[in-house]
Amino acid sequence: NLDVGEGLMVYFFARNTHNQDSSIQWPKILNVAGDVTTDDHFTRTSTGGHLNDGNHEFNLIGNPFASAIQFNELTLDNILDQVWIYDYNYDSGFEADPDGGQATGSTAGGGWRTASGSLGGLANARIAAFQSFFVRNEDSAGDRTLEIPLSAKTDDTTTLFNEPEMPPHIQIAARINSQQISDVWIGFDANGSIEVNQKDLESLFPMDYRSFLTLYAESEGTAFDIKYLPSEIAESITLPLHINSWQPNGSAENPGYIPLSGTVEMIWPKFENIPSEWTITLTDNETGAVINLRDADLYEFEMDVSNKSDLFLEHKLALHSPRVTEKSASRFILTIEPMSTSSPIDGELPAKLALSQNYPNPFNPTTQISYDLPEAADVRLEVYNIQGRRVATLVNASQNAGTHNITLDASHLASGVYLYRLQAGSTVLTRKMTLVK
Fold first, then answer.
1. What is the pLDDT along the chain (437 residues), one digit of tens a residue?
2. What 3-state class would DSSP assign to 236?
3. Taking every pair of C-alpha atoms in the chain, what is the biggest distance, in angstroms?
4. Cα separation of 92 and 181, whole Å?
5. Whole-angstrom Cα distance, residue 8 to residue 78?
6. Non-local CB neighbours of 314 within 8 Å, separated by 6+ positions
7. SS3 state at 340
8. If I label 225, which of 73, 87, 111, 330 is the partner at 20 to 30 A Cα–Cα?
9. Is the bond preceding 259 in cis, omega lying within 30 degrees of 0?
């Protein structure tokens, strides 16, 4: 017997007869019986599954109504305003592949529809009839309670007069071999920050034992599917994006995942309310490609895992998140550059091109890089490790004359000495800096 508001997770086998592929048959039908509640009800959550070895507590809740509910109409006490729903057919904005691949369906693999505030892949934060969903407890002590009132009931034809206004946001989605899919959402909000904040929604691994792709933003060593940055930006912001692909290792004795190779497509189906004066670029740290998200709508690359043959990811029948360590190099850097970070003093422009020493130095994990432009120029500001490998592109844009200040977030980098290199026109300037963690 299920109490009102409880959620249930059910696993199905594809084969009706063990080891007989010919017995694979869909759909599977789960029948339930009982009365649907007609009263307001109050659910007291209990300790749920654990993420990151118990750092956070999750709870599985069930929509008890035969109609959809709107998550932002629920009353939460010591529970974050965030929701995770596992959807095997989530397509992240991709259409079916004309060469026969599928964005959804039997080959796609599962994915999370999420919502934090008004952002995420869970459209309008609506939870379907009888749908189960995960919520995360706040870290503070005390009772964790969740109330689902009758007033939260809605349907797909309802006009949501209380629907929150969407902040400026970008959705970046990826899929490998026209099948496995993942996405990350970047929002710009008055309560957002470069550092971790309460609106950031953590990334979770899929829950079925199939090939999958993960794409997430990194902040302070944590993986996020939804990351809120500040809405007022006076200087360039850089955000590491990680992408990894996995496939089952085929072992019955030690089931887990090994790296998956293939062709990856990246798109940004949502690019909404972004100020026109901002330049948004995506830098591929492996190929050196810099993609202006306003000028392009697709980026493709090959996921080469030949040097990752020793990697192994344990399969867990539990909620768990990607672990970001000092050795976890990000494949991409997302750079948000406001139109002008020039700050002439008393109307005077810098007399010459100059690159200042970063401050603070040594630093952990953020530091400021300042430089002077005596005249407008095409500028490229990059960071290299001591072996000469580029690890970040902070600026790749035309900039006005003036003093410019750029923030480097090195959460994804290991401790050590780095070089930052400024190229303005034909002139190149370089300085050293030290990251100490």
1. 778 888 888 888 888 998 898 998 888 888 888 888 887 776 766 655 555 545 678 888 999 888 899 998 898 888 899 999 988 778 888 876 555 444 444 445 568 999 998 899 998 889 999 999 999 888 766 778 888 888 888 876 555 555 556 789 999 999 999 888 999 999 999 999 999 999 999 999 988 888 999 999 999 889 999 999 999 888 788 899 999 999 999 888 898 999 999 999 999 999 999 998 898 999 888 888 889 999 899 999 999 998 888 899 988 878 888 988 766 778 999 989 886 444 444 557 888 999 999 988 888 888 889 999 999 999 999 999 988 888 888 888 888 888 888 888 888 888 888 999 999 988 989 999 989 88
2. strand
3. 80
4. 7
5. 22
6. 256, 257
7. coil
8. 73
9. no
pTM: 0.77
Q: Which residues pair with 41 in a beta bridge?
A: 148
Closest-CA residue to 272 (of 165, 361, 182, 351): 165
DSSP one-letter code for 364: S
Buried b (16+ CB within 10 A) or exposed e, 189-227: beebebebeebbbbbbbbbeebbbbbbbbbbeebbbbbb
* Residue 227 to residue 236: CA distance in whole angstroms: 16
- Amino acid (one-letter) located at 425: G
Distance in Å from the first CA to the final CA of the chain: 51
Rounded Cα–Cα distance for residues 89 and 114 (Å): 14
Contact (Cβ atoms closer than 8 angstroms) between residue 75 and residue 85:
no
